[in-house]
Design a protein that fits this description.
mainly alpha
Length: about 45
């Protein structure tokens, strides 16, 4: 998709890191005791 979107290598790196951060946040949210805490974990990454 990066080629179709015209992304630079730097943009690709940023997007991949953002994806990894979102996955880490989602995994951390699954370890929380309640929905509010889980939502807070997810919201740490925009």
């Amino acid at each position: 998709m990066a080629g179709v979107l015209g992304w630079s290598p730097e943009r690709v790196d940023r997007e991949v890191e953002h994806y990894h951060a979102r996955v880490r946040a989602e995994r951390a949210s699954q370890e929380q005791e309640d929905d509010a805490a889980a939502d807070a974990e997810r919201l740490k990454v925009n």
